[in-house]
Write a structure and sequence with these properties.
By secondary structure, the chain is of the alpha/beta class. The chain has 12 helices and 23 strands. A hairpin with a 2-residue loop joins β1 and β2.
């Protein structure tokens, strides 16, 4: 059991999953995670906030029963409906068919397609709406794209608790719930930053809006959907300060223009080097990095790509395609914020040379501004080819 009383008659009934190592297919979770859920018992009514991953349904129900009669739960508050939070709703409705599910307008649409049943009693919570549980009041604040479009916060004013959904959360699992009991602070800090980058990095303008909502509320406890509960005596102020710092737009004094490439026999690398010279002669204060993709950590490369002002991608053609490391890099793109960024494609090839065409298609599908032509040469570049590559770099630089 993982039962904790957060405030008087406010309980965590969370489920721990310390062994999780990959979340949502792409996100590593070195410290596992928790599926946080909360019971709020008013003098008249009881509400459950969020559910848990379906795989832990029985465990989850037993946790609820430790602090409340299951039949007493009248409301289910869904701050957003990602399946790790909503996965148990359909089975929960089998036990509580009269349960009233409170969620945002967008959430009301999503949830119907998650539970696939027409008899659910779904209540749409508009921004500022409240539910009275007796001596406890739950108020809802729209917080879209934190990190799903349907996200909202739930605020318990009498106890100064903010149920912040994924906001301020982390994939970090220790047996004890509160931030004051974290044993491995450095690991928690890494998990917090990794979570922010993966979950909220593409939505920084919405993080700023979320912080503005938070600043207007009087609370001393944030109860997120993953990770430790944050308190005034613990890390609450620190985490909010980090979110404030991390959500600030990156300001570059000099243009950041990384050139990513793979090169089987050094030919694509030679082109990359000449293009870099051309860019540098045009934008003299630009920070241009030549990055052989297979020699660097992919997280570092994706960070440089996503924070760049413009970037180029080069690849040889092997078996009629770009090489796998290029596709791995381009699978780490922040597709929301990369739109309209100047990009260009280059490469050496021996037989048919499809690599640049396919990379261009990928960059165009991401809505970047791909330079009007690719730069390709066959096998080993001549001195004339390298001069043309330099001119290509100059021409591309003029578009940045």
């Amino acid at each position: 059991m993982n039962i904790n009383e957060i405030k008087d008659n406010v309980y965590s009934v969370s489920v721990l999953n310390p062994n999780l190592r990959v979340f949502d297919i792409v996100m590593t979770t070195d410290n596992g995670t928790s599926y946080n859920s909360y019971i709020v018992k008013g003098s008249e009514k009881t509400a459950l906030i969020e559910t848990a991953h379906l795989n832990y349904f029985d465990y989850f129900i037993n946790n609820i029963k430790e602090v409340a009669e299951l039949e007493s739960v009248e409301y289910l508050i869904m701050n957003h409906n990602e399946p790790d939070h909503s996965g148990s709703i359909a089975k929960l409705l089998d036990l509580l068919p009269n349960l009233k599910i409170v969620t945002s307008q967008a959430g009301s649409i999503y949830i119907k397609n998650i539970i696939n049943r027409n008899d659910a009693n779904i209540i749409v919570a508009k921004n500022g709406d409240s539910i009275d549980l007796g001596d406890k009041t739950l108020t809802f604040f729209s917080a879209p794209f934190l990190h799903w479009p349907d996200s909202m916060f739930t605020y318990l004013k009498e106890d100064k608790v903010l149920f912040s959904c994924d906001f301020l959360g982390s994939h970090y699992c220790e047996p004890e719930l509160f931030d004051t009991n974290i044993h491995y602070y450095e690991e928690y800090s890494k998990a917090l930053k990794g979570y922010f980058d993966a979950i909220f990095g593409p939505f920084k303008p919405y993080v700023v809006k979320g912080l503005n909502i938070v600043k207007e509320l009087d609370f001393d406890c944030a109860a997120p959907s993953h990770g430790p509960v944050l308190t005034k005596h613990g890390l609450l102020d620190e985490v909010i300060a980090k979110y404030t710092e991390w959500s600030n737009p990156t300001v570059h004094n000099n243009k950041q223009i990384p050139i990513f490439y793979c090169s089987a026999y050094g030919n694509t690398q030679l082109i990359a080097e000449s293009i870099a010279v051309g860019i540098k002669e045009t934008i003299t204060d630009a920070n241009i990095e030549l990055l052989d993709i297979i020699k660097y950590d992919m997280n570092l490369l994706s960070q440089k790509l996503n924070e760049s002002d413009a970037f180029l991608v080069g690849s040889p053609t092997i078996n009629k395609d770009a090489v796998p490391p290029v596709w791995v890099l381009l699978s780490h793109v922040d597709a929301i914020n990369i739109a309209k960024k100047p990009t260009a494609v280059f490469g050496s090839y021996g037989w048919s040379g499809e690599a640049t065409k396919f990379i261009r298609q990928r960059l165009e599908s991401l809505k970047t501004n791909v330079y009007e032509e690719d730069f390709r040469i066959t096998f080993v570049p001549t001195e004339s080819d390298l001069n043309k590559a330099k001119e290509f770099g100059k021409a591309f630089a003029l578009t940045i």
